């Protein structure tokens, strides 16, 4: 029997081992550093960024201004040259890509900028058509698509108006239609709903969701609009050039649901649960691998994301299987609470994915709730 | 061409702001006007240099090899005229005599001490069909009288103040040519040029009597300034020209009207500062046009930087933008050319009336200016396109 080497590099909430993990990655950021300026003026804007975005995911990037989220967005959008590290977009490595490659990749992307950037001289239809023409979409198909999009965005009666006679929100919606007309594989948007009212803003994100679901279109947007946070599959928070958190929303809620099922976590507030989920890391074990060994010092708390384990207690030279645990169940908390060595050995019976929480973080969670520890003690007392 | 099916962005951007378009067209029209003025003046002045050639009858002309311009007094023996007239395909060959240095005309109205000025005297045998002007052929009978001549009505007025509008008055004016009395029996119209301030036309006999010193020994009419050759009506011009050229010794050039015209204009264009001055004028017009056009296109680009950056983000290539700007330049030049052409037309008409210069809008010169205008707008577009290619989509987020 071998001891598993803990894989602590990936946070549990990144969703890297959750459902749909096998989906192709639209964006793969690896060890990405970015700098502005030269020589003495050179400042680093991004520090060792790592991020994976799956096909069909809607990603919302948040963070204070100057946190580098816009820089990361322009890098993903091929609008800046990659300095250091790896950046793969739609299967193409951008670091060292040629101009032609980049122009090619750009055609698979839809950009929605904060400013509408519409040509005053062109009608709404013609502005949107500029994007369609580049793709060589047939005129008939383009016309249908443009009319459909503009109508969906409540501009059916303004199709042949020039920007001069449109309101700010209407112009922004024309720009959104322009970003979507060619059915891009990746949409990059900067505050797309900032200029829109609740209803039209909702219509825009609904369109995003439809394209993500029906066409596998990936959406990455920077927004501070709390009204649309609910559409995010993943929320990436950046601070000072670092990706501080990268949370697959569904996965985070799955973890919270798992934890909530147990009386000792049930009393925790959603905030504490989310914090706990955020700090968990992924660990994987092969069948037959020893996850924890009896009498070893306790260092991690384990939640089973997928797979099965056996719990074996050795007493007086005899091994006895005391329990079998599966998805959503947890173990390893006793040694952390009591600060004593492990009281049992856990062996994976199949390929198993765990989400683990370190001792310090676990302790921090405990401190959040005064009732938590006593509860836990009673649970533990009940168990032994 | 796929460009035609696409949104005509160049055209739309150009015509969207009507006020700016009007300013642009005024600017380009002005440059067109400048160029037309230069081209027009140049052509008018060159045309006036060859007005005599244009006014000659005949198909082929004989000039001394040494005569690099009409004003150069290089002559050839009369023998050549006789030789040419005997050539196959030639209907007739006739001499024209011309004198400038000895030909000093004095208006004696204010007495004997009046100052004389050089004037070109043209002599011809009155029976010879060499001059086109009806005014001359109609008055040939007057020229049979000794010491008579016709004067060019456009002779420089400050030098030769003769009342050309009234023949009777003119005939009463006392005048002196090369120290001998002359009666001006009528007038005709030819025009002045850089070398000649006026013209007299007279019979060959009178011409000989005024300028006996043309030839040091012998008959002054034995040396000819210009030979006029008529080909037979059915003969081929180039063929006759070559035949005459073969026949005559090497001291004369045998030229068609076109060749002679080109030779004469070529001299003024290439060997005098006149050509350079007009070229400089045209270049100035061109440069003014480039500057104006550059300004128009540059402002248009500068005002739409974020829109163009958006197009680049979409994946539009540099080639698209270069093509668009070239299209914009061509459109600007064509629509700017029209008001410029109309204004030039008006100016030509006005100046022709004012100066007597032959300012005529011809198809070739209009085409030449249109070509320059298109070139001008494309050049300024290509200068401005660098600004467009600096549109950075990274600045949009």
From TrEMBL, chain A:
Known EC number: 3.6.3.-
GO cellular component: membrane protein complex
Domain of life, per lineage: Bacteria
Leader sequence residues: none
EC class: hydrolase
Domain Cyclic nucleotide-binding residues, every copy: 264-366
Molecular functions (GO terms): ATP binding; ATP hydrolysis activity; transmembrane transporter activity
Xref: Pfam families: ABC_tran (PF00005), cNMP_binding (PF00027)
Gene3D superfamilies xref list: Jelly Rolls (2.60.120.10), P-loop containing nucleotide triphosphate hydrolases (3.40.50.300)
Name the record gives this protein: Macrolide export ATP-binding/permease protein MacB
From TrEMBL, chain B:
Keyword Transmembrane helix: yes
GO cellular component, one term: plasma membrane
Segments passing through the bilayer: 21-41, 276-299, 320-345, 365-385
Localization per Swiss-Prot or TrEMBL: Cell membrane
Source organism, top-level taxon: Bacteria
UniProt keyword annotations, A-Z: Cell membrane, Membrane, Transmembrane, Transmembrane helix, Transport
Domain ABC3 transporter permease C-terminal: 284-393
Membrane topology: Multi-pass membrane protein
PANTHER family per the UniProt record, alphabetical: ABC TRANSPORTER, MEMBRANE PROTEIN, HEMIN TRANSPORT SYSTEM PERMEASE PROTEIN HRTB-RELATED
Protein name from the UniProt record: FtsX-like permease family protein
Taxonomy of the source species: Bacteria, Pseudomonadati, Planctomycetota, Planctomycetia, Pirellulales
